[in-house]
Amino acid sequence: LPARLVYLSLIIVFEGHFDMARFSIVPNLNFFSRSEWVANTNLPRLGGRVPRQARTHVFIHHTVTPDSDSTPNIWETEDEIFQRMRRLQVIRPDLGLDVAYNFVAFIMADGALNICEGRGEDRSGAHTKGHNTRAIAVSFAGNFEDLSVEGAELKDKMKLLSFFLGWLKFDPSHPDYGQFREMRNLGSLAPAGRKVFAHSDVKATACPGSKLLRHLDEVDYLDPNTA
Amino acid sequence: LIRTLRKSLLASALASLTFPAFAGEMAALQDFRDVDLPSIAISGRGPFALIDEFLSHVDTDADAEDVDVEVEAAETDDGFVVDIRLRGYKDDSLLGEDFRLVLDKTDGRYFIARAGVQYVCARGANAGKAQPDYCP
After folding, report:
1. Angle, to 10 degrees, between the axis of helix B47-58 and the axis of helix B2-16?
2. What is the three-class DSSP state of A95?
3. Contact A64/B136, CB-based, under 8 Å?
4. In what side-by-side order are the strands of the sheet with A103-107?
5. Taking the complete model, does pTM exceed 0.95, yes or no?
6. Residues 6+ apart with CB under 8 A from B108
7. Which among B56, B59, B93 is the top mutation candidate for probing chain A, defined by the most A β-carbons within 10 Å of its own β-carbon?
8. Chain B partners within 8 Å of A200 (Cβ)
């Protein structure tokens, strides 16, 4: 019998981040990779590998590291937030020398929401005991329990956060970042009346602060392509 | 998680279990926040089975994560006062929790008469100290 040759075509999905990446997911929603905020490379990214389909829910936190100026939860410059990210790499050695969250969100004075990559999409975190593998944690930089949120326009920021979570869920790729698989199960686990968890839903904590908590029912998973 | 807890619980419990007489059961839960117990009382033949049951009641986390568990039991006239110290939480707000159980013995079985909790915060004014207020 003539030999039959079977040609298998392999679709290779590139899953490495481009080194430097900053881009907008939708207008006013900006993403910064670790290289972009100049993570201390002596401190490697921590956390175990987590398959994207294993991500089922989102936790919202606050960092309790407020700004020292008159607008403690609003950030003025990129340099300022990049410095904060490097500080978050070392702030809790007992959790490991890396940012404990998957992503950190900064409310910017110009109205934008800047998302900085922490452990990122594919690593476990150290943010919520018992939920560090299956959950994605987004932590808002600041203190939303004790300090003013005047001018933060949280309703607008919840919409931008919703586009970020939708980006993760539906198509977390960008020409300047790479081509990645979606987190299709994200949001399959949620508390009653909301699409995302607050840290205080599961632990004895005020995190993410009452001022942020009252807006969390506005958060959804919005496809950026519909913006 | 409970399987993990059980393993470390037994090991550390054997290592640290002591039976000093506990002075003043009435004061045992002062400065602790009450823990709601199930409407059907948890009861067991021995204190250890009860501790395991209690932990599965208060700890319902989705992911199994290692936690350091230390147990100390002090004998009283009616049963035991048990301190369960959980540490090493991978959590930005809490380092751990301290549970205190008041176990009474009736008809040869132990039951949890009362339970309380204190939180050990990772940040804020009370960081590192076990206390009953929620952490920031």
Report:
1. 140
2. helix
3. yes
4. A22-26, A29-32, A113-117, A103-107, A135-140, A57-62, A197-198
5. no
6. B45
7. B93
8. 134
Q: pLDDT confidence of B106, banded at 50, 70, 90?
A: confident
Q: Counting every residue, how long is chain A?
A: 227
- Residue A216 corresponds to which tokens in the numbers above? 């969390």
Q: What is the pLDDT of residues B34-78, one digit of tens each?
A: 998 876 667 777 788 888 888 888 887 878 788 999 999 998 988
* CB-CB neighbors (< 8 A) of A66 in chain B: none
ipTM at complex level: 0.90
**Sequential DSSP letters for A24-37:** EEETTEEEE-TTTT
**Which residues of chain A does B61 touch, with a Cβ-Cβ cutoff of 8 Å?**
129-131, 202
Q: How many CA atoms lie within 13 A of B38 on its CB side?
A: 12
Residue B50 dihedral angles phi and psi, to the nearest 5°: -70, -40
DSSP codes joined into one string, A52-80: GGG--EEEEEE-S---SSSSTT-B--HHH
The separation between CA B127 and the C-alpha centre of its own chain, rounded to angstroms, equals 20
Q: Is B61 on the interface with A (CB under 8 A)?
A: yes
CA distance A159 to A153: 10
